[in-house]
Structure formats: structure tokens, C-alpha cells
Design goal:
Low-confidence stretches: 324-332
Bound molecules: 1,5-di-O-phosphono-alpha-D-ribofuranose
Radius of gyration: 21 Å
Strand content: 5-15%
Helix content: 40-55%
Structural class: alpha/beta
């Protein structure tokens, strides 16, 4: 086993903040990961190119291990570490810094572009029902408002962490009328909604949408009520591993997010489960809105193949040969 090279403080801090959800939301996580990799590139005191590459991969692994479901994180690592090139430390450093900057610019551009596409689906006077907090979904409303449309929102609070409060506050900043409801009131209020508008943490090759727990139940109810379901997801949310049959791991979070210890003990012996996400099957989704246009969920696989090919690389992992050499194994 090799000793892993030291990490920049920004990498440790970012990883901790992602794990505790101080930094949350798939796009925001991706941007923070890119910034942390840039810090690692700036601060790494590697003596040679191999050591520099090892340090960058170590930073990648530390970030990768934080939250398993949001694919924007490994896709951010793929984009930036996949563009690391050069024969000396300075060239490698420059390539990572250029890639992280390009990646962050691309994120912002993608969100604006998909916002324009999503806004075209909203008509003047429409009401959207939201779940959780998604910067991609809010971009659609923001652009509709910029187009001069009046939009209202019914905002689900989204237990257990109440990210709906963030959505409500940001919609108010846009001048949108907001009605905040508890999650269990959603079906009653669907009759007043023209669209369900949500984001995504990952999109699978079959068009399944992995998003905040409760999305799938909302989608089933919306379909029953005839309310179209629109998913705002820039292409960084496409999960390339699902092209080869892998499933998306659903993150289980700590039970204390759901119930405090004292209340729980007062109830007696119970199990508490806290899955962060669920999967909405493609048949309940009307459109996935991306920066490349809108897609019926069943056709998203075409876009995924275009962007990722048939397989997803994992540039944060140690190449087998290099680990074997470092561990003292005989060279082939
Ligand atoms: P943007 C959130 O998860 C929600 O599920 C939201 O739809 C998704 O991230 C995407 O967010 P969490 O991080 O990338 O609150 O659209 O668990 O901002």
C-alpha cells in the first residue's frame, strides 16, 4: 500500500460540507468539487508528474466518497481529472486549473440555457408545484419571469430537511407568489397546479429520474390528476454507469434528520429509515429539460451515449499498474 499524498484543506473542508449537506444540490456540489480540485492543484507540492497525478486522484477519491447518488460529483471529477495532461508538474497544474475553470463556466451556461428551454414550457399565469430545492428547476422559473410571464408556485416543504423553504425564499426573490404546503397536502393542491417542476440528482439510461425522496409519489399523483411533470436537469446529471446496467445507489442518511433521539426513545423501539432519494419511472415524466433541449425520458439514452460513449471512466482511481509498482510488485 502507498501512503496517500496530503490533501489541501479545501478538499477536506469541501468533502465534509458535502457530507453534512452544508453544500448541497447536485449542480452546487459539482461546482464545489471543481473548486476543491483547483485548490489541490494549486497547493500540491509534488516533486514529479507521477506524484502530482497521485495527489489529484487522492483528492478526487476523497470528494467522490461523500454522497453516492448525485452523479454530478463523479461527472465533475471525470471532466476535470480526465483533462489533466502534461509532462511536468507545472503543465499538469495548468491543465487542471484550465479544466476546473472551463467546467464551472460550463455549469453556469448549461443552467442558463436549460432555464430558457424550461421557461418556454411555462405560460403566462401558470402555477408550478415544486419539490425540494433545485437550482436547475428555479432557472426555468427565473427565465419565464424574465420573459414577462406571471408564474405562481405551490412549494412542498420537503421533509426531513425542508429544502422547500429555500425554494420558497428564492421564488419570492423572483417576485413569484408562493404557497407553502406540507408534503402530504400535495395531492389536494395538484388541482391548482399546471406543472410539477422538479430537478434531478441523477438520470438513468432508461429515463428514470433519481430525485429527492417523495418525487415518485408526487409524479404518480400528478399523472392521475393530469398535471404534466417536467424535470430540469443539465446533462451533468446523466449517469453514465447506467448505460452498462449499473443501478444508482440511493443514499441512506442519518435517522436524526427525521426524529430527535429523545422523541424516538419516547416512542419505544422502532426502526427509522431515511432514504434521501427515490426513482421516478420514465412513464411518469413528460419532459426532461436540459441545456441541449427537452427530451422525452425514453430518448435521453441517445444524448447520454453522445456525451459519454459506452463506458464511464473513473480517473480518480489508481491505475492498476501504478499501484502494483508502488506496492513493490514485480514489473511485467
Ligand atoms: P440542482 C437536491 O438534493 C434535490 O433532490 C434537487 O432536485 C437536486 O439536488 C438537484 O439540485 P439534495 O442535495 O442541481 O438536497 O438542480 O439532497 O441545484
Amino acid at each position: 500500500m502507498t501512503d496517500d499524498p496530503p490533501l489541501a484543506d479545501a478538499v477536506d473542508d469541501t468533502a465534509a460540507d458535502i457530507a453534512t449537506m452544508e453544500i448541497r444540490g447536485a449542480a452546487t456540489i459539482a461546482a464545489a468539487a471543481a473548486d476543491a480540485l483547483a485548490a489541490q492543484a494549486r497547493e500540491t507540492e509534488a516533486e514529479g508528474p507521477a506524484a502530482f497525478r497521485r495527489a489529484m486522484r487522492h483528492a478526487g477519491r476523497r470528494l467522490y466518497d461523500t454522497r453516492p447518488t448525485a452523479v454530478s460529483l463523479p461527472n465533475a471529477l471525470r471532466y476535470t481529472l480526465g483533462r489533466m495532461e502534461g509532462d511536468d508538474v507545472e503543465a499538469l497544474r495548468e491543465s487542471v486549473l484550465a479544466a476546473t475553470t472551463a467546467f464551472t463556466d460550463r455549469l453556469g451556461r448549461a443552467q442558463r440555457d436549460l432555464g430558457r428551454v424550461g421557461a418556454n414550457r411555462l405560460r403566462d399565469g401558470d402555477t408550478v408545484m415544486t419539490h425540494c430545492h433545485s437550482t436547475d428547476a428555479l432557472s426555468c422559473v427565473e427565465h419565464a419571469v424574465e420573459q414577462g410571464k406571471e408564474v405562481s408556485a405551490i412549494v412542498k416543504e420537503t421533509r426531513p430537511r425542508n429544502q422547500g423553504h429555500i425554494t420558497a425564499s428564492e421564488l419570492r426573490d423572483l417576485g413569484v407568489d408562493v404557497t407553502l404546503i406540507v408534503d402530504s397536502a400535495a395531492r389536494r393542491y395538484l388541482d391548482e397546479a399546471d406543472h410539477v417542476l422538479v430537478g434531478a440528482d441523477s438520470i438513468a439510461a432508461d429515463g428514470g429520474v433519481v430525485n429527492k425522496i417523495g418525487t415518485s409519489g408526487l409524479a404518480v399523483n400528478a399523472r392521475e390528476r393530469g398535471v404534466p411533470i417536467m424535470v430540469a436537469a443539465q446533462t451533468i446529471k446523466l449517469h453514465p454507469d447506467t448505460l452498462t446496467g449499473h443501478t444508482v445507489e440511493i443514499e441512506m442518511r442519518d435517522e436524526t434528520e427525521v426524529i430527535d433521539t429523545e422523541t424516538r426513545e419516547g416512542i419505544g423501539e422502532v426502526e427509522v429509515h431515511n432514504p434521501a432519494f427515490d426513482v421516478t419511472p420514465p412513464r411518469y415524466v413528460d419532459a426532461i429539460v436540459t441545456e441541449s433541449g427537452q427530451f422525452p425520458p425514453e430518448s435521453i439514452v441517445t444524448l447520454m451515449r453522445e456525451l459519454f460513449g459506452e463506458s464511464a471512466d473513473r480517473p480518480w482511481e489508481e491505475p492498476e499498474r501504478e499501484s502494483a509498482d508502488a506496492a513493490g510488485a514485480p514489473a511485467e
